Amino acid sequence: MSAARTVHSLLLVINFVFLFSFSHSCEAQCLEACGFNAIYQFGDSMSDTGNSIIEFPQAYHSRLPYGKTIGKATGRSSDGLLIIDYIAQSAGLSWLEPYENPNSTFKSGVEFGFAGAAALPVQTLLKWNIPPRITNNSLDIQLQWFDKHLHTTCNVTQDCQEKLKSSLFMVGEIGANDYDAAFIQGKTIEEVKTVMVPAVLQAIKDAVTKVISYGATRVVVPGIFKVGCAPALLTLLASNTSTAYDTFGCLKNYNDFFAYHNDHLQLALEELRKEHPTVHIVYADLYNAHQWILDNHVKLGFTSIVETCCGKGGKYNFAMGMTNMCGAAGIPVCSNSKGHVFWDEWHFSHEANKYLSEWIINDMLPKLQCSM
Ligand SMILES: *[C@@H]1O[C@H](CO)[C@@H](O)[C@H](O)[C@H]1NC(C)=O
Ligand SMILES: *[C@@H]1O[C@H](CO)[C@@H](O)[C@H](O)[C@H]1NC(C)=O
Ligand SMILES: *[C@@H]1O[C@H](CO)[C@@H](O)[C@H](O)[C@H]1NC(C)=O
Ligand SMILES: *[C@@H]1O[C@H](CO)[C@@H](O)[C@H](O)[C@H]1NC(C)=O
Known about the structure:
- 42% of the residues lie in helices and 6% in strands.
- With 372 residues, the chain is an alpha/beta fold.
- Helix 3 packs across helix 13 (350-368) and helix 7 (176-184) packs antiparallel against helix 8 (189-214).
- Pfam families: Lipase_GDSL.
């Protein structure tokens, strides 16, 4: 009895400490309350759990040290898990299997995200002199895959609608690759704002409208993180004026640009909510989740916020060129990946993804209104 009570009060103390050490707290399985039968994810390398390595088996992220924290390389662009893995776990589902892998069983939904994917089709980007990316599997192509997948699993006009009612749709993060390519191509922020942002937002709106037409009732649309803090952007678009940088060492004008995209994305989602009042369309605020990590990085155990863990050279532990990048022969890996927000030049570490997903799940859970 007394031992049980001691354990009980100890648990209370632990709970107390836990609650006060995180501004956001949610039990590991909190999305389970939604009873999702499946998750369908569209996006780029932020969510790709193994599609791109089917088409590009030689890609660096098909082998170690990618995946080293979970003991094997899976095609995820991280040392371990991605945000979508933590979201699936929280929903009580297994990790999403990639659409392109013939061995996938799709028991918990489908991962359509593809590393390098853009929101806009390759032809649209070419029109603006943005050269073809390593992949053409943009958002519209991923939606075609979704349509194909449905035709093999349910009757699209009938029981798919019923099945998808209880599913979670994740449309994004997507669009960062379009913008990054434009900036690296020398486009100015003003140009990208005027020409590309409306097109990217329309592509995302079209994708949301499309999944709703198939029967989606809960659609989460993530914004873009603070890419102005990513080692690749900091290296490729470095500024020679110190005032261009914020106190974390990030490029302010690029972060402002991504905030601009996010603000307009939220306005677009507001329009979609008016058109589809019975559908829960939820914005996932990756930008502020990332900001929360920056603000609390010391407490969270991060010692490096703008340098890669896996990479070599320059101010940010990253240099251009295939032989210098994470995964190439002889490229060093930091001894403590947990201390790094970024794993490689564009991608978050396993540890950062854990905190980002925790923040996002806490933020989106009430908005999904699962108990109603
Ligand atoms: C599918 O499974 C087989 C048998 O385990 C394996 O040999 C093959 O490499 C797998 N294919 C892919 C693309 O993972
Ligand atoms: C991608 O699209 C471009 C332009 O339409 C085409 O030339 C190229 O072959 C495509 N690449 C792949 C891998 O399909
Ligand atoms: C799908 O449902 C529609 C409407 O009930 C029906 O007409 C059609 O035959 C079904 N198709 C298949 C492949 O079962
Ligand atoms: C800083 O960079 C700009 C453009 O990148 C260049 O025009 C300018 O001369 C540079 N200034 C210095 C002090 O290097």
